[in-house]
Amino acid sequence: MIDTSRFPATNAIGDFIRATLPGPAAELTNIVLAVLAILTVVGLTPVALIWMERKVAAHFQARLGPMRVGYHGLLQPLADGIKLIFKEVMKPEGADTFVFFLAPILSATASFMVLTVIPFDHHLQVTDLAGGVLYVIAVAGLGIMGVLLAGWSSNNKYSLLGAMRSGAQMISYEISLALLMLLIVLLSGTASLREIVFSQAGTVLDWWIFKFPLFGLVAFVLFLISSTAELNRAPFDMAEAESELTGGFTTEYSGISFAMFFLAEFVNMFMAASLTTTFFLGGFLAPQFGLAPLDRVLDAIPGFLWFFLKSYSVIFIYMWFRWTFPRPRVDQLMNLEWKVLVPANFFLLLVAGLFVAMGLV
Amino acid sequence: MTEQQAGLADDILENGVAMTVPPGFSIDRRERHTDEYFLNMGPQHPSTHGVLRLMLRMDGENVLEVVPHLGYIHRGLEKIGENQTYLQNIHLTDRLDYLSSHMNNLALCLAIEKAMGIGVPERAEYIRVMVCELQRIQSHLLWWGVLGMDLGAITSFLYGFKEREMITDIFEEMCGARLTMNFFRPGGSFADVPDTFIPRVRAVIEKMKTAIDEYDTLLTNNVIMHLRTKGIGVLPAKTALAHGCSGPVLRGSGVALDVRRSDPYSIYHRFSFDIPVGTVGDCFDRYKVRMEEMRQSLRILEAAAASFPGGPYRSKKYASYNLPAGSYYSQVETARGLLGVYIEADGGPKPHRIKYRSPSFANLSALNDLAVGHKLADLVPIIATLDVLIPDIDR
Amino acid sequence: MKTNAKNTQGRVRPVERGEFVPDGQAHWSLAGYLTHLANGCLSLVKGMGLTFGYFVHPGRIVTQQYPENRETLAMFPRFRGRLALVTDAASGAPLCTACGMCEKACPNGTISILARRDPANRKVLGRYLYRFSQCTLCNLCVESCAFGAIRMAQDFELAAYDRSDLQLVLYGKED
Amino acid sequence: MGMRHIGYATRTIPKFLDPLPGGAKLVDAIEFVVAWARANSLWPLIYGTACCAMEMMSTGSSRHDWARFGVEVARATPRQADLIVLAGTIVEKMGSRLVTLYEQMPGPKYVIAMGSCAISGGPFYYDSYSVIKGGDRLIPVDVYIPGCPPRPEALLYGIMQLQEKIRTEGRRNPWKIGTLNQAPFGDPLAEAKKMWADLEKSRPAAPPAAADAAGGNGAIDRPKPKRPATEQFAEVARSPLPAPLLDNGTIYAYIIENFPEITLTRQSEQTVEQVRALGQEYLLDLTVPLRRYVELVGFLKDSELLDMNFLLHVTAVDRPDRFEVLAHLFSANQGHNILIRCALDRQQPEIPSLSPLFAGAIWHEREVFDLFGIRFSNHPDLRRLFLEDNFPGHPLRKDFDDPSRVVRRPY
Fold first, then answer.
1. CA D327 to CA D316: how far, in whole Å?
2. Which H, E and C letters describe D91-158, residue by residue?
């Protein structure tokens, strides 16, 4: 085991509050602060990601992207956001009002709840559950509810088709995602996300992507594919599939309720990227190359910066996928899951079991 | 999307369940206990390429029957044409299949030339062939980009347009318009090509050679593309001929009908080019045929640019073009297939009847045969590889 | 297929269909399956390589920044932006003789030539109405003019808030 | 379009803030920010009917890249769109759908009419029985972009004009939505002529000097009309094209051998030599009696020699005393084509359908039924193809006239 004393679980602000305020009040204040911090992340991530998505897409496509709103279009997401908030909200005739407006909230909430267990840095984590992985699987599944309800309540055939596709897809891909998480749990011997990060301490080669020779890389790629599908992101955006279903489950949503789905999509993407980072890329740990002077420099950079750098790199890969590939058909997507990914995951799990039993990792 | 209730206004109700079937379907009334439902697609739908409207009889994601509804851009071009002189009609043909506007212009000019016995100078013939082949490439580039976009690969749309703009520039410099050219006249064209024409064409040929390889990397050789198009929308040669399909759709089904070869016009008979044909007749074959056609067009362009002659660009201008009474027909191979112009002249300056035999019209009529038994998502590559243009159908 | 005797250049050639997704139901074999899988993955990686190439080469960006490049943006000399009258260089008077050829040549009734009699009782141009809202910029009017009195101008920034602003009086604007 | 369309927040905020001291200033500030956001986040609806849609796509392409304005988020569903660019002609059948789309968009919503067709019907203003003469007869238009089609830069300029309009929107400059054009459409050409004649009549006979000052069209400094030298072109002889395998004479001889009652249309002589003399460019135009029409088409299709396996089109011609239905056949393998013509009674036009022979005839015959009102017996699905079921009359008949739809061209 590594020396965890280098990585205290508390941070200076929390410690200060605990020292100044009496017990329960301090805890409460700390919780409020943590929630606010997460909300800030949730609020700012989509803004950054929408800008990034549009600029990255543009540069993949030999064009410039937003240029005229702020410096290189930096204020573009802000304009979009304000516009959506001040737009008329419509509800189609025959829609189930309560469910129709509940669905986007549910969707946005689910993605935001997962972030509470993500270790952004060794002392920046709202709570470190012992069964953090289980919590992630459970809560991420809630997002499907939002999509299904949105499609069902819209009173539109396209919405319904989109929601059904999305439901089938997300439930299927949750299996391979869970299997891959299980793989990491098996390898690292813990289900706490913080502990999983610590299990990758050492050099770059100790990250699970490399530490589990070759198979780690395969698992990483599989995780990327499954999470793309789980995110309903192109090329696996069956649920929205603009050219087939106009807007999929969001067809009838306008204004702020559409903005919620939009927001959830980007927070989800960040969440998936942070899970990838945590499981495979050493989380908040600085990359170490075994060269003492360089390592010291890298280590001096705060962990959460490393975490965001790694997450955004993963997000870049998601975008890269999106702006390169055509979309498979919905049944081919299912084929991919059940005939390729699930068997491959079981195989990986088997190999991992052998590795662990033989003490190779 | 906008009219799910369309066609169901006079529902016959049976225990509160609507039993009426929208018009055009092969069944008379709904079955009470099946899961079939009707889905309206269009006229405003991203993958119907304009304002095509499809009524689908579906079972889950499976398409049982497709009924296309036309006329959402029927402008009555043939009626308007009866009230315009032949020269004015040329500018109306721009608006049939606006991605092949030069070829449309040419078809009408050929008919007028045939009727009045007007000859065309050598340089004008070269201009015609080159301009038409440029436009074929331009149209296929747009088709390729839009096909990719429909399949979810939006980047292909932008790559296709990148090269397309080069060709658009040639046209704009040559005749001042980017889309509705109105360039050809009986006996030639209204203006000579500028001096920069041949260098620009050479640049396009050079660029396209590498660009088509890029397209192959991005889409043609992409495994998802193969999964989406192979075995989808198989059109047997016999069905294709019965529907009067033409162009890449017919050639994709293995029938080597190309008007440029079988009923040559202008000076196409002097150029060497291959006719790519499909073997299976599915979306992928139609796709490959178009990709190959771009290469063959480059071949024609290369040969034409090498021997581009001087001389006049048009033969004698007439004050008015009064076709002698009679019936005249000419046909050309546009980017979408066989475009025919039939004129019934009464000796005056305006036609008694002008009829455009548009390729997309016949190609789309085979849609039901193609789509039945496939998934909703397969309609997208099927419509995209039919490459229909709705204003061309509706006229 | 029979072909015309004089027209035998080129040939009919079936297109290639590629191998890595087999047509129809291929016989299942593990080696074949894995090969197809590997080839498929390779094709995806190649596509990603292509787009990445564009991402890292800003030089390949073809975007023209329109409102910012107004100074350098020039239309081609033949560009048909809108109809304009040609005026005599010396006197500034239009060359138009109000003969009405362009009016007749226009397929869309875009042009109205409103003539009047000058004191010497000759027919002269009184007002030249150009319904830009209806114009298809087909160039037929310019071709029909025997006096070179009209031309296509290269303007393109012509958007208007009001429909009636698109009825242009090219000559003889009063009130 | 009333208050309902401007959104809940927009309506409520001033209500609460205005009474407060300095609240009006705050509302103005909010309005400024919101207007800025709206102007810079115009999501267009994917809507395009004809040519202009191609230029709209070009505007979205890498070269022009409307993403620079934040416009690239084109939505397929009207619920999320702010802007509808009327790209292309709007016909009657599409008109009602366009209004629905507009109503499905949440406010505030903006409309740009792109190109001549969307502004006024453009090339289809005269003589068209189906084109709506301007999109602003259906929905209020904010910006008009003339051109046919307008260049991408022109569309971008139009978008900038719209942004300008949105930015100045506020309580001091209330948003002026475009007006609906409800003026009855007439013939602008004739109207202009009439107005001018009236004006001329009312104009006092001015002395020559005054006329000069008024219009600058006096006799004195007017340039003499000069005809600039134009390029002269010589007549060119038609160059021969490769001949098809079968010449018209052979085809004609073969057909009349089997169908002696067939006649050559509009030819005085009816011999094979006459057909040969007409040359290869002559379209073989045969008139067949109604009773042998289908039989002839079937014969041509199945004939080993002629091999007419391709139906080009079925159409009709309106003659003063009769209808003529034309079936045009083509040999895909050999490249010759034949036009078959069959005269019909003008009162009760009915003819057997070719659909058992060619599946493609189904749509062609529906088109003829729609536009000419000719019935096809044993047709499987004889419905109108292009026009609404309740469209009065059959527009391609020469006697069709519908002043509520058609403006006749005056020349």
1. 9
2. EHHHHHHHHHHHHHCCCCCEEEEEHHHHHHCHHHCCCCCCECCCHHHCCCCCEEECCCCCCHHHHHHH
Beta-strand relationship, D284-287 and D263-264: antiparallel
Q: Are residues B82 and B27 in the same domain?
A: no
Q: How far is C53 from chain A (nearest CA, A)?
A: 8
Query: Per-residue pLDDT for chain B (395 aa), expressed as one digit of tens each?
Result: 344 444 444 455 555 556 677 787 877 766 666 678 888 887 888 777 778 888 888 888 888 889 999 889 898 889 898 888 898 899 889 888 888 899 999 999 999 998 888 888 989 999 999 999 999 999 999 999 989 888 888 888 889 898 899 899 999 999 888 888 889 988 888 888 898 999 999 999 999 988 998 898 888 888 888 888 888 888 998 899 999 899 899 999 988 888 888 888 888 888 888 889 988 888 999 999 999 999 999 999 999 999 888 888 888 888 888 888 889 999 999 999 899 999 999 888 899 999 999 999 999 988 888 888 888 888 889 998 988 888 888 88
User: In the beta sheet, which residues pair with residue B61?
Assistant: none
Q: Can you give the residue range of the structural domain that contains B26? A: 1-33
Q: Is residue B63 part of a domain?
A: no
CATH topology of domain D40-167: Rossmann fold (3.40.50)
Cβ contact (<8 Å) for A326 and B224? yes
Residue C95 sits at the chain B interface (C-beta within 8 Å): no
Domain ranges in chain A are 4-357
Select from B50, B158, B317 the Cβ nearest to the Cβ of D233.
B317
Statement to judge: residues B25 and B84 lie in one domain: no
| B127/B12 same-domain check | no
Chains in touch with D (3+ beta-carbon pairs under 8 Å) read: A, B, C
Fold exhibited by the domain D248-377: Beta Polymerase; domain 2 (3.30.460)
Judge residue D137's burial from the number of C-beta atoms within 10 Å of its C-beta, 0-12 exposed, 13-18 middle, 19 or more buried: middle
Cα gap C60→A50, rounded to integer Å = 23
For an interface test with B, give the residue of A93, A232, A323, A325 to mutate (most B CBs within 10 A): A325
Longest Cα–Cα distance of chain D, Å, equals: 101
Interface test with D, best of A86, A90, A258 (most D CBs within 10 A): A86
B234 occurs within a structural domain: yes
A-contacting residues in D 172-231 (Cβ below 8 Å): none
Measured between beta carbons, the chain B residues lying within 8 angstroms of C7 are: 261, 264, 269
Token pair 């439930």 is found at: A171
Domain count, chain B: 2
Q: Which of D120, D157, D221 has its CB closest to that of C157? A: D157
Size of interface B-D (CB pairs under 8 A): 245
Binary contact (B152, A62; C-beta < 8 A): no
| Cβ-defined contact of A59 to C47 (cutoff 8 Å) | no
The ipTM of this complex is 0.88
Whether residue D62 and residue B161 make contact (CB cut-off 8 A), yes or no, is: yes
Are the C-beta atoms of residues D248 and C13 closer than 8 Å to each other?
no
